[in-house]
Amino acid sequence: MVGLLLRRGAALLLTLVAASFLVFALTQFSPANVARETLGAYALPEQVHILSEKLHLQDPLVVRYVRWAEVLLGLRADPLDDPALGLHIHDPRGARYFGNFGYSTLFHEPVNDIIWSRLANTAVLAGIAFAVIVPLSMLLGILAGMRPGSRLDRVLSILSITMTSMPEYALGVILAAIFAVWLKVLPGTSPLAKGTGWPLASQFLLPVAVLALYDSGYVARMVRASMIEVLGKPYIRTALLKGLPRRRVILRHALRNAMITPFTVILLQINWLIGGVVVTETVFAYPGFGRMLLQASLFGDIALIEAATLVALFVAVVTQLLSDVGYWLLDPEARG
Amino acid sequence: MALLEIEDLRVEYRTLRGAVTALPGFSLTIGEGESVGLVGESGCGKTTLLMAMLRHLGPAGVITGGAIRFEGRDLAHASEADLAKVRGSRIAIVYQEPASALNPTMTIGAQLAEVPMQHQRLPRAAALARAAEVLADVHMPDPRAALSRYPHQLSGGQKQRVVIAMALLANPALLLLDEPTTGLDVTVEAAVIDLIGELRAKYRTALLYISHNLGLIARVADRVGVMYAGELVEEATAVEIFAAPRHPYTRGLLAAIPRPGASKETAALLPIPGTVPSLAHRPPGCGFAPRCAHFSPGLCDAGPVAMAGTEGHRVRCLRWAEVTAAPAPPSFHRAAPPTAALLESRDLCKIYRLPAGALKANDGLDFAALKGEVLAIVGESGSGKSTFARILTGLETATSGSLRFAGAEIANRTVHRRSAGEVAAIQMVFQNPDGTLNPSHAVGWALGRAVRKLGGLRDRAKIAARVEELLALVRLPASARHSRPRQLSGGQKQRIAIARAFAGQPEILVADEPVSALDVSVQAAVVNLLLAIQAERGSTMVLISHDLGLVRYLADHVVVMYLGRVMEAGPSAAIFAPPYHPYTEALLSAAPLPDPTHKPRRIRLEGEIPSPLNPPAGCRFASRCPRKLGTVCELTPPPLRETADGHLIFCHIPLERLRAVTPVFAPEMVEP
User: How far is CA B667 from the centre of its chain?
Assistant: First the structure.
C-alpha cells in the first residue's frame, strides 16, 4: 500500500510538471501576449515592446518556462512586481513566495486572490451535487440492474437517457423557467450574494438539480450494466444455491463486485464537477471556478488560465490516485 | 429406499419464438449413499436437469410437469422458503469451473462460513471453526491460513477442494457434481475423485456425477445413465454399460474414444455422424434416429419410444435386441516407418527473467521428431509444453540451446525473422476453435487469407480454388466458405482451423489439445481427420495433450515433461509399459479409463507442483516422487538410463528396479 502510494505520488508529480510545461507552451501560441494583456488594449506598440524586453519574452521557451516555474516555487521574484515597471500592481504576500501564480490581467489582482475563493464556491456546489449524484445513481442502477427488463428497469432507463441527452443549458433554462419564473419559489440566479432577497441555501438548489439530473442518469447506467454483468457470474449462482436468501446474495456477493467497474467512473465525476460545469455556472451566474476559467480564456488572461489549468489537473490526478487506492481496496486480486 | 425420485420431469424454456422442450419427460431414482453417473454430450440437457432439481432455471426455464421427490418434498412445486432449506443444506453442488464458482472479493473463510451460518444458525466464529475442519477433511494444506485467503491466491486443485468443502459443510444427503474435474490436471483430477470417494464413505452422501468424460464416469459411478436430447436412453450398472452397451448412442460413444491401450495401428475410432438435435427441432419418435445406423423408417420415427430392456438394464430403443456390435474397425496403415529426423532439439532452454527470479520454463530439452510421425509431449500444467510450442512456432525465442528444423536453426528466430517458407512449414492448431476464428468474417475469407499469406498465392481464382481444396481436405462442403464461425459447430470450426494450418503445406503441425474442447462423438472425427491428412501429406505432428488415452492412440513417440525438463522419452508402446519413470507411472495411474473393472494401482502425488522459480536442485520430480530414494534425488541430477528400444529415462532408480513393477495398465490392454 505504501509502495503504491509512493509510486503513484511520484507519477503525480511528474504528470504535473509535464502538463504545466504543455500548458505554458500552448499559451505562447495563443494570440494573447503577456506584455500586451498587462498593458491593456490602448498601449502603444513601443510600450509593449519595452515591457517585452524587460520581461525577457524573447528568450527561448524552455528558459521562460524555468523562470515561470521558479516564480511559482518562490525561488525568484515575479518580474511584474518590479515597481520600476510602473504597472502599479502589488501582491500583499510579497513578490517571492511559494505558489506565486502571478497577476491576473483580467481582474488586475494577484491570481491567488481570485482563484481560491472561486474554487471554494465550486467545491461547495460540486460537493453537494456529488453527495446527491452518487447515492441516487447507485440506488437507481442497482435497482434497475437487479431485474433487467422489469418495468422499474425500463422506466429508469428511459428517464436516465432522457436526462443525459438533454444539454445542461436546456435543463438549466427549463428548470429556471418552471421554478423561478412560473412558480417563483426559487431564485433564477445564484450569485451567492446576500442582497438578492433569497436565502443562500436556496441559491444552490437549481444548479445542484441540473448537475444531478444530468449526471445521475449516466452513472446509474454504468452501475446498472455492471450489476447485470455481476449477477450473471457463476459465483452468484453458487451463493444462491448455497441456500442464501436473494437479499443477502445481492448485498454480500453482488454489490462489492458490481462496484469495481463503476468506481473509477464515479470518481471521474469529481473532475467534471470541478472543471467542467462551465455551462451550469454561467447559466446561473454562479461565481465558480468553471465560469472564471471561461472568462479568463475569452480575455486571454494567461496567468489565470495557467493557474486554473494546473489546479484542475491537480484535482484530476488526485482523483486518479483515489481511484487506484479504491480499486486496490475493492479488488483483492489487484493486491496480489 | 430411494433418496431422490425424479418422475416424468418436463422442463421447457420460454423463448421469443415460443416454448422449446429441454426435458420431455425425465425419470431417475437415486438411492441413499448411491453414486450415479450421467453421461451425454453438450446440449443433451444434463445441466438443465441439475438446475431443475434445485429450481434454478433462470427467468425462461419452467417446470411444466412431473415431480422431483426428495426427503418428503416435491422440489418441483416447493415454495421458495422450502427450497432455501434444501439448497446448500440437503442438496449441494460441486461446480465445473472452481475459479469462477468462488466470489473473487470474499475470503475463502467468509464464503465457507456462510453455509453453517445460514443453515445451522451458527455464530460466525463457530462457523469459521467448522469451515476449517471441513477444509482439513478435503486435505487443504494449512486450513486455518486458507480461511483468510482469496480465491486467486489458490491453485486450481485447491479451489476445487474449497468448492467441495463448501458443498460438504452442511452434510448434504445428495451431492451433485457438474463436470467436477474438467480443466484440472490428471493427477489433480485423480486426487479430487479420490477425495470425493473418501468423503462419500465418511458421510454416506449420495452422488450424482454429470460428465461427458466416459473414463471419469466409469471410475466413479455405481450406476450410469446415458442422456441424449433430454431423455435417458440407457440405464444400467457401470460394469454393464461399459461391457455390454445396448443403445446405439452408447455404443457410438464408446466406439468414438480409444479403448484402453488401443493405438492407431490396432483400431480406428468411429465418430457418430451428425450432431445433437436442437431443442426446437426434436425428431418425432426416437431422438437419436437421424444419427442412428440402425434406424428403421416407420418404426423408429412413429412416436415416442418408451424405456424397454430388462430389469436393471433399461434402454430406450425399439431395436436393441436386434442391434449387433459395430463391425470391426479398419486399422491405420503406414507405408514405411519414419526414420529421418525433421526436428531436433538440443539442450534447449527458455528462461524468463522475472522480478522474483529466473524462471526456467524449458531446461535442457533434448529430443527429436521424425519426419511423418506423431510426437506427443505430455505433462501437467507448468511442465513447459506450451513454452516449447511457442519457441517451435516462433512466437518466442529460446534463451540458449538449439532447435533445428530440416537442418536450419530456428530457436533464435521469431516468426518475423523466419522465411515465409519456414513460417508456412510449421503451423499450429489450437485447443479452442472459437478463439481462433474471427467471428466477423466468413470462413472463406479466413482461409483465403491463410492461402495468400502461407501459400503465397495472389490470383483470386487460384485462391478460391485452393480454399475449396482445403475445405475438401477437411471433409467440409465447398459451400462452407460462406458460413460465419457462429453458424458452425465446434467440430466444424476445428476442421476450419486444421484447414487453415494446411493452407501452406506444413511439414510440422503443432496440435495443442486439438480435441479436448470438442464433444466425444466429434473428437473421433477430428482425430481421424488429423491422422488421414497427416498420412496423406507425410507431415509431422507435435501433439500436446494431457489425455493419455489419446496420446497412446495417436503418438509414435512420447516425451514426458515435468517442471521444464524431460523425465522420459521413447516409443509410445515403451512409455506405456514398464520400465516407467515414477512420474509417468503416477500419470498413468491417474488417467481415467472407460472401463469400470479396471482398478489401476493407486499412485497419488502429494502436494502441489513446486514453483518453477525455485525447482529442486537434483531431480525436478524429487519433492513429489513416491519412489524417492533419498537425498541423492534431491541433490544430484538423475542419470540417463536407456533401454535397447530407444527408451530414455532420467532417474536414480536402476532400470531393473523400474522394470520390476506391475504395469499400471493390465498387460492384455497394452499388447494389441
Answer: 25
Identity of the residue in B56, B103, B118 whose CB atom sits nearest the CB atom of A235: B103
Tell me the sheet residues that pair with B650: B640
Task: Clarify whether residues A241 and A131 are in a common domain.
Answer: yes
> Domain range spanning residue A50?
32-100
Cα distance between residue B334 and residue B338, in whole Å: 9
Number of other residues whose CB lies within 10 A of the CB of residue A244: 23
What is the DSSP code string of B315-328? E--TTTTTPPPPPP
Residues 6+ away with beta carbon under 8 Å from B201: none
Q: Are residues B89 and A256, on separate chains, in Cβ contact within 8 Å?
A: no
Q: Answer yes or no: are the C-beta atoms of A163 and A217 closer than 8 Å.
A: yes
ipTM of the complex: 0.82
d(CA A70, CA B212): 73
Q: Which amino acid is at B414?
A: T
Domain boundary among A100, A126, A151: A100
Which positions in chain B touch A245 (Cβ < 8 Å)?
84
Ranges assigned E (strand) in A15-174: 103-104, 109-110
CB A138 within 8 A of CB A223: yes
For the segment(s) B357-555, the CATH number from 3.90.226.10, 1.20.1420.20, 3.40.50.300, 3.40.50.1000 is 3.40.50.300
Q: Are the Cβ atoms of A234 and B152 closer than 8 angstroms? A: no
The correct answer on CATH 1.10.1140.10 for the domain covering B2-221 is: no
Looking at the structure, tell me whether residues A72 and A117 fall in a common domain: no
Q: Answer with the one of A69, A100, A131 that is the final residue of a domain.
A: A100
Contacts of A229 in chain B (CB under 8 A): none
Whether A128 and A166 share a structural domain? yes
Which residue of chain A has the CA closest to B53? A241
List pLDDT tens digits, range B428-451: 998 888 888 888 899 999 999 999
Residues A300 and A229 in one domain: yes
Residue A11, pLDDT > 90, answer no
Angle at B301 between CA B48 and CA B246, to 5 degrees: 70
DSSP state of B598: -
Domain CATH for A211: 1.10.3720.10
Q: Are residues A180 and A54 in the same domain?
A: no
Residue A52 lies in a domain: yes
**Rounded Cα distance, A211 and A171, in Å:** 9
In a domain, A238, yes or no: yes
As a whole number, mean pLDDT of residues B655-667 equals 79
Interchain CB contact of A247 with B (< 8 Å) = no
Extents of the domains making up chain B? 2-221, 250-329, 357-555, 567-670
Same domain, A117 and A86: no
Contacts of B90 in chain A (CB under 8 A): none
Give the count of domains, chain A. 2
Shortest CA gap A333–chain B (Å)? 6
A184 shares a domain with A53: no
Whether A4 is in a domain gets the answer: no
Cα–Cα distance for residue pair A224/A138, rounded to 1 Å: 8
Residue B135: pLDDT band with limits 50, 70, 90: very high
- How many CB pairs below 8 A link A and B? 70
Nearest residue to B331 via CA among B374, B269, B270, B267: B267
Residue B599 has pLDDT above 90, yes or no: no
Q: Are residues A212 and A314 in the same domain?
A: yes
Which positions in chain A touch B86 (Cβ < 8 Å)?
Answer: 243
Residues of chain A contacting B95 with CB distance shorter than 8 Å:
234, 238
Chain B residues with CB under 8 Å of a chain A CB are 54, 56, 84-89, 92-93, 95, 97, 100-106, 114-115, 118-119, 150, 152, 163, 166
Average pLDDT along chain A: 86
- Count other C-beta atoms under 10 Å from residue B415's C-beta: 13
**Is B56's CB within 8 Å of A241's CB?**
yes
